[in-house]
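Justification of computing resources. Each target in the renewal requires a structure prediction run like the one illustrated here; the chain below, 189 residues long, is used simply to show the kind of job we budget for.
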Amino acid sequence: MTDPSAEENVPDRYRRLATRMTTLIGGVPDNAWSRTTPCEEWTVRDLVGHLVEAHGRFQSLVGRSLEEHPAVADDPAGAWTVARDQMQADLDDPVRRDEEYDGRFGRARFADSVDGFIGFDLVVHGWDLARATGQDEAIDPADVARVQRQVDRMVDTMRENGAVGEAVEPAPDASAQDRLLNSLGRRTA
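Resulting structure tokens:
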């Protein structure tokens, strides 16, 4: 079985994942912003704040700043929109997309780092947001497979950094999506 996301370039994958996140953020009921997410220390608003902050952190790796945006506390959807649009513009620009920086794992390209970290977050935190707000929790099977490969390579480092919780034992008949989420400490049942 081939993975269609393997043929997708970074700007297109980001666009697709960010569009899904935008739909989920747009679907948050007004009274749900303070609900707890599967990341128990975060509310729905905090989770969106994390995504906006992560976008800014990746901009800073190449000497850029996140553009002026509304405060997440006042307008989480507006803050997300600014961060998303700036990231998409940078990924669509070959010069900005290919900028390199010296990172934790050595020399890295901006687009590859965004694809690995932000792409991971958009998939996993998309599920978190959907779960917390009663929206469609289905993750594209190609994204499940791609993120699972990342987890297989990096889970120990992720745990050392506190980025994921301790694995939850999956049910014997768990789907690939549930097994992925369980491996990241999410309870799916």
